[in-house]
Amino acid sequence: MKTQPRHVAIIMDGNGRWARTRGLQRYEGHAQxxxxxxxxxxxxxxxxxxxxxxxxxxxxxxxxxRVEVEALMRLLARFAKQERAExxxxxxxxxxxGSLEDLPSTTRHAVEDLIRYTSTGDRMTLSLALSYxxxxxxxxxxxxxxxxxxxxxxxxxxIDEERLRAQMSTHRLPDVDLLIRTGGEARVSDFLLFEAAYxxxxxxxxxxxxxxxxxxxxxxxxxRGKERRFGLTSEQVQAGAVDAAGxxxxxxxxxxxxxxxxxxxxxx
Length: 268
Ligand code: IPE
Ligand code: IPE
Ligand code: MG
Prior knowledge:
By secondary structure, the chain is α/β, with parallel strands linked by helices. Helices cover 43% and strands 14% of the residues.
């Protein structure tokens, strides 16, 4: 596997510990982390990564102390305002996975504005995971499919991977190729549970505020050295069987648009 990852996802962990070991408040770690975000996004775009997804705030993070949640929301709003011109000039299109509607209105509006302002970007898609939970995303998709079945628009046996994906907030993104977690922990903390099924996982002890372009380059280099087998044998992979069997990571472009359920309902 010598190609570069199309979709890189990052669990940006370690802001709090980085701050505490320096005698700083946790929010100062988050502020410093925002600078690492800027550098990483720019580097990814320059490297030709097509999709970058950043875990910025999980559903579980709502349970942190109120002052910390508020600081994170303020930082996010500030990031959205300060970076929008730069992001647009780099050709970066911003989107959100998770539940943007859960955010306080000032932050939500700043992010919505960022999404609109960068909507013509065609170099890289930057997805911010906000109030995101992998389990929650799957539960909501299951609920949407159940509602379609209940309304007589879909038969249970018609539910397949593609239809499930179509209901998830990640439906515009291809599968994750490379998942990086900073901060030294080797866990996924409810991030992209479905979409990272065959991702290469890379855990680094570097705390997020100290993550630099060279760390990203190093991670991509490690990825390039991996053989992705998708359940096959190495011999099969080398004979080209992964591509032949269509086993490489899911790409929405390879699939038809979501089924036109309403047309079907009208016809029946
Ligand atoms: C990640 O850093 C940022 C968010 C979860 C928003 P943490 O705040 O989790 O930092 P640590 O893990 O406590 O060091
Ligand atoms: C994951 O980090 C969430 C984000 C990076 C936004 P956490 O710090 O919340 O995860 P745990 O608590 O270590 O699993
Ligand atoms: Mg953490």
